[in-house]
């Protein structure tokens, strides 16, 4: 039991670091757009191309993200769905069955949709934390 609590604590710490990284990505320019600085004429040598980096179009503000720890309780291979239960007993789903097994512990980052209702929250990313077997 102590190992599970330790794994959940480490998983929560990793999730919080991931949330901080996502918040940092919002401030870093990552989309590449190339625009000439001046329209070249036929008699002059071409002007150098100015490369401006712009942030990607992301819809998640860091203030609307939160983390939860859960345990996988079911896999639907045909629908590619992973079902897990969080520590409060709420059941959640996300796509991507590939490496998951029932009993795996995970950390998930949720987007709250800017609402107070937790039932419409979305799983943005789920990371493996540990296994209970």
Would you kindly provide a written description of the structure presented here, covering whatever features stand out?
- By secondary structure, this protein is an alpha+beta fold.
- It has a single domain, classed as OB fold (Dihydrolipoamide Acetyltransferase, E2P).
- 20% of the residues lie in helices and 40% in strands.
- It has one helix spanning 2-27, and strands at residues 31-36, 49-54, 65-76, 81-86, 91-95, 104-111, 122-131.
- The chain is globular, with a radius of gyration of 21 Å.
- It starts with a helix and ends with a strand.
- Residues 27-38 have low confidence and may be disordered.
Can you describe this structure in just a few lines?
By secondary structure, the chain is an alpha+beta fold. The protein contains 1 helix and 7 strands, in the order αβββββββ. The strands form 2 sheets. Strands 5-4-3-6-7 form a 5-stranded antiparallel β-sheet, covered by helices on one side. A two-stranded antiparallel sheet has the order 1-2.
Strand order of the largest sheet: 5-4-3-6-7
Count of individual domains: 1
Estimated structural class:
alpha+beta
Beta strands, count = 7
Number of helical segments?
A: 1
- Share of helix among residues? 10-25%
Q: Extract low-pLDDT stretches.
A: 27-38
Evaluate the radius of gyration.
21 Å
Report the biggest beta sheet as strand number plus sense, adding barrel if it closes: 5 strands, antiparallel
> Separation of termini?
12 Å
Q: What string, H for helix and E for strand, traces the elements in order? A: HEEEEEEE
CATH fold topology: OB fold (Dihydrolipoamide Acetyltransferase, E2P)
* Beta-strand proportion: 35-45%
CATH class: Mainly Beta
